[in-house]
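TA notes. Do not distribute before section.
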Amino acid sequence: MIQQNLIKALVALVAFIVAMGVLGFVFEDELTAGTTWVVQRIGFVGLAAILMVTDTLVTPFPPDILLVVIAKSRLSEEWPIYVGILGIVSVCAGMTGYGIGRWLGHFEWSQRLFGEFKEDHRTFIRKYGFWAVAIGSITPLPYSVTCWTAGVLGIRWSMVLAASVLFRIPRIYLYYWLLSTTGSLFSLG
């Protein structure tokens, strides 16, 4: 199961890099204008607030778009600081999602909903709980879903926090680096 998820994550990552590289090359001027507009209107604090919401709640908005905003705006001048702060915000959001999952786990309807899943995967979760969260932290799949599920299934908060810090923050740095360099991979000059 872990190997299958890692393969899916790698395929999704490659597809994401190629798509962002092609889009960045084809629409570079529009992307730069759009990201500059976003930063002027909401600033970095607004970007961090968006990430807090998207990594806490299950939303269709991919938080990696915020890395594109940093890469294509004036924020790129001090990207290590901004990307690091986004990494910390993401972990805080994930732990908030974990808390929501723990709270939901106390309701009968939630226990029934997750009951079959819980029984079927109890051994897996006990054995690979840390690695399940680690995989959820690095894949392009919603991190919020991983953290909610960890909460509902009762994975220890310290395990979720450790996996998130050790894998989510480096993942955000890696994705930023990949996003900021893919434009040059597809450029003509």
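Switch to the second chain here.
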Amino acid sequence: MNTKYKHVLPLISFIILSALQPGGFTALAQGPGPGQRIPLPPIPLKGDTTHTLSKHFTLASANKKAPDAKGFIQRWLVLEPVKKDIVRNNIFTDNYLRTAFSADNFSGDYTIVPKHGETVNIGNQELKWYALDSKAFNVNLYQFTYAINRPKYGILVWLVTVIDCPEEIQNVRLAAGCNSGSMWWLNGQEALLLSGDRDMIADNGTSARLTLKKGKNIIRGAVINGPGMANFCVRFLDEKGSPLKNLSISYQ
């Protein structure tokens, strides 16, 4: 054999052997046979451009609502977001959160219950309250702000709900998860502070032992987030760590 072709022999041998192997070079295979179709790339889903609350929420009714099957509170008064200049979430120290929540507060009365549709002013921003039931165990604030055409990133969102207890319940704990930082009050008293850059994990933080009084109990929350998703979940655990379900939830 002419020596000028010797250098291509290894390549020819490799191609022949590869073609004989199962799953060998598809370039050497025949086109699709009868009834076969060439796989198509997946068609991307169109983005949601409807900006409607109904995808993730329903407007709360006047009827009281029970927690879900695992005790999570799905009914909240949610204030439109306070826009904040936050470029990263690792700034959420205890001191930062306390300062931010104090400065951008809609009311110094932590037992006040706003009304659905009511507006308040924080700084130069006029913001409206929504009484909503989340369709999931958590409240997705990213989807809320998207639905109402408000900023989705760099936000502080205030929350209020009313828990009605048939009797006094002692030694309970408020358990919350959020993305990224949050603070929670029960009947006007601080109950839990979740600082740092967190992911939303159920029961990521729990309060000291608390007492739910007979009748109405007011929960206030504040969730703050820079880049990324913003959402939270809250429930009460009894002294054995089981979720409380014998509660009624309202927004008034």
